[in-house]
Amino acid sequence: MVADVAIIGAGIVGIATAHALLDDGRRVVLIERGEIARGASFGNAGALAFSDVLPLASPGIMRKAPRWLLDPLGPLSVPPAYALGIAPWLYRFWRASSAVAAQHSMAAQVALMRLARSETHRLIAATGLQHMLLSDGELELYESAAELEASLPNWDARAKEGIEFRHVAGEEIAALQPGLSPRFTHATFVPGWQSVSDPYEYACALADKARQRGAEVSQGEVAAIEPIEGGVSLRLASGSTVRARQAVVACGAWSKALAAQLGDPVPLDTERGYNTTLPPGSFDLKRQLTFGGHGFVVTRLSSGIRVGGAVELGGLKLKPNFRRSEAMLAKAKAFLPDLKTEGGRQWMGFRPSMPDSLPVIGPASATRDVVYAFGHGHLGLTQSAATGRLVADLLAGRPPAIDLGAFSPTRF
């Protein structure tokens, strides 16, 4: 096969990138090792979290981490079998969590989120998928005035970026979400929060629109990538070869090995996320509920009520530990007493994450004909359209829409 631009990975980032390249008149082939959008794009919460400008790597998380790590089923865990493997990543995470480093990461995240908001809305309008966009707002919940007080510096940082929110209590919480346990005495409502009706259905709809515009989708696992005269050669695990004038590495958690072949040993690892999707009607959910102190969210989707989140730093090979899903579901039942917990579908996926909470967006060291687009952590859906725009800029030789220095593959 000979292609103009080959995109390795047909998750939400690869699909959004295909649209940006099609806008430039490029001929695109998406190469996917499995089914379209069946990785992290399948099981996320569906949030377009443009207000989440604070990096996970921050002084606040370092204060919480020791307490969380004591609970093997808590918001953050490291399986003993993977502790040695994740140690270099954790060291870099610790370095990125200093006040100065976190401020630098936040500034980069703010710029990317501004672009993400405009590019996502443009993409949804251009593809006619407005019916899949929800604007119900989000409610972040606290169990005490002290817990709200501890969150205020983060909200102040958001306020400086023009993000609208209001702190609420008592009857106003009940009005925004009836049926909550009275243990949640304080909350913050973010009225501008948006989401999609279902992340998998949205990604598939975008993929269908890309096909209608001329993009091709090919199934295969890219095992090797190397620059050649006039472009790039991709060797598939099947033994066949794809030649392309340019290529994009957007295969999420599986991007690390390909980047290393191009001279970029990026410190990419995985946050294994768990969820349970309950049948529609399991609870009268008005909007996304975020239980930040417990590290999970409850989201209303067209496919049901999804209870999920938490972080397990466990790599790609360990077996799933679905006790984590069960623990979150048990908490959700305690927090929402009327929640019906029968008939749920469990899932575990791999969030591709960098230690500083910023994705990798930039050219490979070996050749500018390959551009990286991976490592978005919890924000792949949110930042997908912006990433596509930036990749298209780089491959076209245009100045990118924002400064990409903080996202460089060589920043570590």
Q: Which SSEs are present, and which pair or pack?
A:
Blueprint: E1 2-8, H1 12-23, E2 28-32, E3 47-48, H2 59-69, E4 76-77, H3 83-96, H4 99-127, E5 133-134, E6 138-142, H5 145-160, E7 166-169, H6 171-176, E8 186-190, E9 194-196, H7 199-212, E10 216-219, E11 222-228, E12 231-236, E13 241-249, H8 255-261, E14 269-278, E15 288-291, E16 296-301, E17 304-312, H9 323-335, E18 345-353, E19 360-363, E20 370-374, H10 380-396
Parallel strand pairs: 1-2, 1-13, 2-10, 4-17, 6-15, 13-20
Antiparallel strand pairs: 3-9, 5-9, 6-8, 7-8, 11-12, 12-13, 14-17, 14-18, 15-16, 16-17, 19-20
Helix pairs in contact: 1-7, 1-10, 4-10
Q: Structural class, from secondary structure content?
A: alpha/beta
Poorly predicted parts? none
Oligomer: single chain
Instruction: Note the gap between the termini.
Output: 35 Å
Mean pLDDT over the full residue set = 95
Largest sheet: 9 strands, mixed
Secondary structure tally: strands: 20
What does the radius of gyration come to?
21 Å
Overall 3D geometry? Answer: globular
- Structure annotation, total helices: 10
Helix content: 25-40%
Sequence of secondary-structure elements: EHEEHEHHEEHEHEEHEEEEHEEEEHEEEH
Strand fraction band?
Answer: 25-35%
